[in-house]
Write a structure and sequence with these properties.
The protein is an alpha/beta fold. Among the domains are: about 1-150, ANL, N-terminal domain (Rossmann fold); about 405-495, ANL, C-terminal domain (GMP Synthetase, Chain A, domain 3, 2-Layer Sandwich). About 30% of the residues lie in helices and about 25% in strands. The chain has helices at about 5-10, 30-45, 65-75, 90-100, 110-120, 135-140, 175-190, 205-220, 230-240, 250-255, 265, 280-290, 365-370, 410-420, 455-465, 490-495; strands at about 20, 30, 55-60, 80, 105, 125, 155-160, 170-175, 195-200, 225, 245, 270-275, 295-300, 305-310, 325, 330-335, 345-350, 375-385, 390-395, 400-405, 405-410, 425-435, 435-445, 475. The protein has a 9-stranded mixed sheet with strand order 2-1-10-9-11-12-13-14-15. A 4-stranded parallel sheet has the order 4-3-5-6, with helices on both faces. It has a 4-stranded antiparallel sheet with strand order 16-17-18-19, with no helix packed on it. Helix 2 (about 30-45) crosses helix 3 (about 65-75). The mean pLDDT is about 95. The structure holds malonyl-coenzyme A (MLC) and adenosine monophosphate. Malonyl-coenzyme A binds near residues 207, 230, 276 and 405.
Amino acid sequence: MGNLLYDRLFGIHAGKETPFLHLPNGQVLTHSDFLDMASRLANTLIGFELEPGQRVAVQVEKSPEALALFAACVQTGLVFLPLNTAYTVSELSYFIENSGAALVVCDDVNRAGLAPAAAQKARLETLNADGSGSLMRRALGMLPAFEPVNRTEDDLAAFLYTSGTTGRSKGAMLSQANLLSNAETLVREWRFTDDDVLLHALPIFHTHGLFVATNVVLASGGSMIFLPKFDLDEVLRHLPDATAMMGVPTFYTRLLDDDRFTGDLACHMRLFISGSAPMLAETHQQFEARTGHRILERYGMTETNMNTSNPYDGERRAGSVGFPLPGVELKVTDSETGETLPQGEIGMIEVRGPNVFQGYWEMPEKTAAELREDGFFITGDLGRVDADGYVHIVGRGKDLIISGGYNIYPKEVELVLDDQLGVLESAVIGVPHPDFGETVLGLLVAEPNKSPDLEAIMASAQTQLARFKHPRKLIVLNELPRNTMGKVQKNALREAYKDLFTED
Ligand code: MLC
Ligand code: AMP
């Protein structure tokens, strides 16, 4: 039967002494070095007596070892479950519990905090940013060879948790075929080859940095300049050695804000790609004026990987996310009836294809509500298709904030705010922000004759929510605007505060 995902992403590079990872300290790991590391880890995982299909929850800093752990999970048929390094212990406990993870891998500094959550069912190992920790200590004693475990294309390869409108995160289950089909399509569409050097400054716990960036490089046999995070100085330093870069819009606005980012520095590049959040037409234009490059914008989601892309050859249209990828069907429907709307009209974007996930882990109702029986996934994004077939995202049907490429569901923050002393109720909205695109604003209504302590509320939020979800500001209102049905009018609030962070 084999293990197609392993064979096509990793196995094809066996014995290759060409570079795979260029590290900021000048060290280079070849494809062969990387596979040795992955195989040692695979032997370690098997030694833990884990069964294929079990989940491995991983909250670690970006490192070659962390990436090799993904490869080792593919090799052993374990389900890789990467988690944002910003998550607090309280957020992590939910993911560990909900996924029923059999192994938790975390940084040494978080070990004590996570021990109670893992104690019930999971084994706990550590992996630090420099590769130290219990996991690699064990792996170093293992053989650098491993025969991949048999897996079918429908077997699960990864879980990625994504928040929801109710405030409860859902584990999106991705199969081998979901990941492989998308990676191979993107290699072709974006013309990646083994000559490419991708500047990789994204986190590797999300679709963008892990499945889009890394899998595309693996499938094409190229290499990556593997930076721990987006640090402007480091990105500028390494840009001359790269051929391509992928980023969220904040990467590009930060580059444009720096005079050292010149046309000369970018002229040798083959491709700049943006996604995960809308890029302003103004950013597209400024980037082209500065560098002569048109950023290629694409559109995807945790549940679907990539759905659409602007063309490699042909017009890359600012404000559009391009055409459905080969094999992906896209339609715009009436949110109420589900009927397909006439071309050009605005409605709900639905997609179907080999990229679309298998459902939410142990949440059949939520799965049924978003994934139709005929295979179309209801994205929650509102859009239209123009006369030339380009898809435009015009808004969101879901109550979601995207800050610097990270998703925040207001409900999750509201639940924390509503719980605070002196707070009667709250509304959390996204408002424009010059760096993050959008940011979180918390609006509070005090209980009668109480005045909530805003500093104490922020401090409490810090213990419960990852930093990127914290409101940048809290404002106390006399009441929240409501419609005749009693529903909070978030549109009115967004309009009232739209200039809060963008006015000089
Ligand atoms: C960091 N902070 C954020 C933040 N990232 N706050 C809001 N939104 C964010 N995105 C916090 C920091 O903790 C810090 O808090 C403060 O904000 C400023 O820090 P910074 O140094 O400026 O942050 P930085 O480390 O530079 O991070 C910004 C960023 C990063 C944009 C580089 O967030 C990032 O790499 N984003 C990429 C996200 C991504 O990969 N999304 C893909 C999802 S997949 P303090 O304590 O200093 O106040 C997906 C599907 C698809 O969406 O289509 O791709
Ligand atoms: P996530 O759940 O983190 O995978 O985020 C997916 C969401 O990001 C999508 O549903 C869109 O709302 C948004 N998104 C991704 N790419 C783009 C883009 N190019 N333009 C606008 N929104 C995007």
